[in-house]
Amino acid sequence: MNGEAAQEMLQKYLKSQGKLRSTPTRMAVLDAIVQTQGHFDAEGLYYRLMSSGKKISRATVYNTLDLFQECGLISKYRFAENSSRYEKAFGRPHHHHLICLQCGDILEFVNERLNKIQEEVCTSKDFTPHSSSLQIFGTCTKCVKTRETERKG
Amino acid sequence: MNGEAAQEMLQKYLKSQGKLRSTPTRMAVLDAIVQTQGHFDAEGLYYRLMSSGKKISRATVYNTLDLFQECGLISKYRFAENSSRYEKAFGRPHHHHLICLQCGDILEFVNERLNKIQEEVCTSKDFTPHSSSLQIFGTCTKCVKTRETERKG
DNA sequence: CTCGGTGCAAATGCTTTGCAATGTC
DNA sequence: GACATTGCAAAGCATTTGCACCGAG
Known about the structure:
Two copies of one chain form a homodimer.
Chain A: H1 3-16, H2 24-34, E1 40-41, H3 42-51, H4 58-70, E2 74-77, E3 85-88, E4 96-100, E5 106-109, H5 112-125, E6 128-139, H6 141-152
Parallel strand pairs in A: 4-6
Antiparallel strand pairs in A: 1-3, 2-3, 4-5
Helix pairs in contact in A: 2-4, 3-4
Chain B binds a DNA duplex through residues 19-26, 41-43, 55-60, 62-63, 82-84.
């Protein structure tokens, strides 16, 4: 994700909502997210911000993540764990996740037919979709191989 | 779900695992679940058991739910909320969920094409699937109508 | 100057754990 | 009788809240 474009997007949203303010804290959090690859959680983001010298509280991290989700900058997921996971949403196609139960790795995939089926289902049920998330839990190649090796050994 | 069949399924699983025991508590929890319609959470199940005179601790409810999930009697989901949700898995087709963000209602649907696509994706990624869950978040008919009425009013 | 944002510490809510007592096999 | 299971209370963890202070507009 392009940092400047993301900042612009946030600024626009803040203004459009009328009472929301642009603050250094929010920009710092956005920067940290822009530099992130893949999925992250609130604690990790907090840690990275603190490590890089920015002082911030966990509460603010959570608040800010909620705000960013509302304006579409990030997506929030709940997989199997206790904690929420986030990822950049800016400029990315709608995709889904393969989650390895052994190593926790997350693979992504895009499938247009899948999206169409979702639309069809919603139409037939008179349901207005807002977002969706397909999670396939299982075992990735790496871990299948590891298991086979262990069995043989 | 048929109560007897469920009990049988549990008994078989307990024996197959070698060290697991069949206890009145486990059977009581299973009974309570069999009588449940739709989704439920740990707290609700605990409350229903206590209300019906069975003494049980929350810890046991959680342990037992984990056990039932392992043997495939129930499915565990994490939607948007903080708490895990469960539902009977016995004798039900693989289905997915439409979750209303307004009223919290959960609609279910089955779609064979969807399942096929999932298989294809897994094959192409060399991923061995174990379970999957498609969650579509949005607004149900009822709530769309309510909102429209409010706008007009 | 006003009202939204932030940090801190405490509180909350769901879930797990440690341990002694109980009950199954 | 051995060891899995249970209940209880306490602990654990992610997240939220209350409130005083700070700072953007």
